[in-house]
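Write out the bound-state structure for iron/sulfur cluster.
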Amino acid sequence: MFKKVYPETSIRFNCIRCDVCCGTGPNVSLTIFDVIRMASFVNIHWRQFLEIYVDVIIADVFPFMKLSGIGKGRCPFLRFDTEDKTYCTIYKARPMKCRLYPYIVMSPSSQTLYVDEKCPGIGKGSKVKVNIEFLRRYQSELKEHYNRLNGLIMEEGYEPLEALYQALDEAYNEAKNGAEWFDLESLSNTKPLIELD
Ligand code: SF4
Ligand code: SF4
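---
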């Protein structure tokens, strides 16, 4: 169940490191920027990353990417520690969508967010709200992702998959040239959620 909220809406939340979000699905959509950051973090080329870790779905003429799941939908990057708590092996480079969870962004420009009420960490711990700076950064990456793919498909006549490969190649080259979005330190310094008490 998703509950509609606004960026200023606070919730009580404390991640208890269960496997509900990362172990069921995982329903994590990816942008070209997520893919380049993650591929670089695990030290493989984006084409190989796509083959191993990503499901590409072509709907109408648009390519969508999501993290693939193992078995009943466990994220390939999910692990359990000795106390049976979950952790993410690519935490520093995890997708933007994972960073903001249990808040969910449905659109690059909407002021509306959703909270995934199946997360058992909701209702526990401190009051938190979304960090607007992080939200804007995420939404601007989403917008750029869709704009680039739309441009390649609608204006330049690329096939959906070719457009995705072209957009990933361009982002890969930007990353090599030190693009700001590729800097994991600055991304990690922008907390997705702010504690209010
Ligand atoms: S965010 Fe929620 S569902 Fe995910 S590990 Fe934490 S408590 Fe569990
Ligand atoms: S990438 Fe990390 S945070 Fe995201 S679903 Fe996988 S294990 Fe969870």
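---
The chain is about 40% helix and 25% strand.
The longest helix spans residues 132-155.
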